[in-house]
Amino acid sequence: METLQKIVGAIGLVIIIVAGIAVVMSLPVWLLWNWLMPEIFGLKEITWLQALGLLMLSGCLFRSSGSSCKKS
User: Fold this and answer.
1) Would you tell me how many other CB atoms lie within 10 Å of the CB of residue 11?
2) CB neighbours of 29 closer than 8 A, spacing ≥ 6?
3) Stated pTM of the model
4) What is the pLDDT of residues 37-51, one digit of tens each?
5) Crossing angle of helices 48-62/2-41, nearest 10°?
């Protein structure tokens, strides 16, 4: 039973760390987009989740060829 608690605790910690990294990486994208794009190009402001999606999409599109997002 103690081993199961350690495994569940480790999984919970990993989820918290991944969520924290996602926030830290997408927050600048969100803030910069909402600061610059509506003023310069007249685009709408985006939500934090849209900024996270934009960050993931740009990572898949612009990463080097060793990425898992490359075309087959």
Assistant:
1) 10
2) 51, 52, 54, 55
3) 0.72
4) 999 999 999 999 999
5) 90
